[in-house]
């Protein structure tokens, strides 16, 4: 009987490779987490701090360093971080060297509601608590707060945030009776009666055209009220 040495060599080589892989995998499982990093992605205004995240993880796990890698459930760690009301999304991964990294995306406030209680409205239209670490520079919302009013305010704020002129100038929105809204500007003394939340694009286009002309004519300080409530018109009240 002729022995097929090539086949035997292949089997032996395969067994060696399997053994090396099993040994490496076993050693990798025994490795400890030696560093736990926290990185904030995007906005550097920290509404939740690294210290707060560490406290969350310590309360749940008693600390993540010197813990065997195989005992860590990364999905669970992500959920613990995302349970915080300041966090929009968390991604946790582990390097082969035992370095644990948590990348955190914070929620983004676009308006501050001065009601009872006070809270932010975030870029998804959801309520977000105020932060003890940082106060966002966003338009202040006052007046009669209601569910419908908040929905309308969210639509107005979305428009303000995508328009450079409005973003730089509008510092407040007051909710009046009948779901009517009044805008307050950063430097100008007049208020802008927006009326209801309809035809926002046309209303703001008219407002910017008025502002450019009044600025050129140096008459911005002559007005107390600029109304956009009437169809395709800007009606002004002088001092």
Q: What's the average pLDDT?
A: 84
Q: How large is the radius of gyration?
A: 29 Å
List the uncertain runs: none
Question: How much helix is in the residues?
Answer: 25-40%
- Described by its quaternary structure, the protein is single chain
Structural class assignment: alpha/beta
List the helices and strands and how they pair.
Blueprint: H1 5-30, E1 35-41, H2 50-61, H3 74-82, E2 87-94, E3 99-106, E4 109-113, E5 119-122, E6 127-128, E7 140-143, H4 147-162, H5 164-169, E8 170-176, E9 180-185, E10 191-195, H6 200-217, E11 223-227, E12 235-238
Parallel strand pairs: 1-3, 4-7, 7-8, 10-11
Antiparallel strand pairs: 2-3, 4-5, 5-6, 8-9, 9-10, 11-12
What does this structure look like?
- This protein has 239 residues and is α/β, with parallel strands linked by helices.
- Helix content is 36%, strand content 27%.
- It is built from 6 helices and 12 strands.
- It has helices spanning 5-30, 50-61, 74-82, 147-162, 164-169, 200-217; strands at residues 35-41, 87-94, 99-106, 109-113, 119-122, 127-128, 140-143, 170-176, 180-185, 191-195, 223-227, 235-238.
- The strands form 2 sheets. The protein has a 9-stranded mixed beta sheet with strand order 6-5-4-7-8-9-10-11-12. Strands 1-3-2 form a 3-stranded mixed beta sheet, with helices on one face.
- The longest helix has 26 residues, at 5-30.
- The chain is elongated and about 95 Å long.
- The mean pLDDT is 84.
């Amino acid at each position: 009987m002729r022995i097929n040495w090539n086949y035997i060599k292949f089997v032996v080589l395969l067994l060696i490779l399997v053994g090396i892989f099993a040994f490496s995998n076993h050693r990798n499982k025994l490795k400890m987490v030696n560093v736990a990093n926290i990185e904030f992605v995007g906005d550097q205004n920290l509404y939740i701090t690294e210290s707060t995240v560490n406290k969350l993880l310590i309360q749940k796990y008693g600390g993540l360093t010197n813990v065997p890698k195989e005992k860590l459930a990364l999905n669970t760690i992500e959920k613990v971080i995302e349970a915080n009301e300041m966090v929009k999304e968390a991604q946790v991964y582990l390097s082969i060297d035992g370095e644990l990294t948590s990348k955190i995306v914070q929620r983004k406030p676009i308006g501050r509601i001065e009601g009872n209680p006070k809270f932010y409205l975030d870029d998804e239209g959801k309520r977000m608590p105020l932060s003890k670490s940082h106060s966002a520079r966003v338009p202040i919302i006052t007046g009669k707060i209601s569910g419908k009013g908040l929905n309308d305010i969210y639509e107005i704020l979305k428009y303000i945030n995508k328009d450079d002129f409005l973003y730089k100038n509008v510092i407040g929105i007051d909710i009046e009776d009948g779901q009517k809204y009044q805008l307050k500007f950063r430097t100008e003394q007049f208020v802008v009666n927006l009326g209801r939340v309809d035809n926002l694009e046309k209303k703001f286009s008219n407002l910017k055209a008025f502002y450019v002309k009044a600025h050129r004519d140096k008459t911005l300080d002559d007005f107390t009220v600029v109304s956009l409530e009437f169809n395709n018109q800007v009606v002004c009240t002088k001092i």
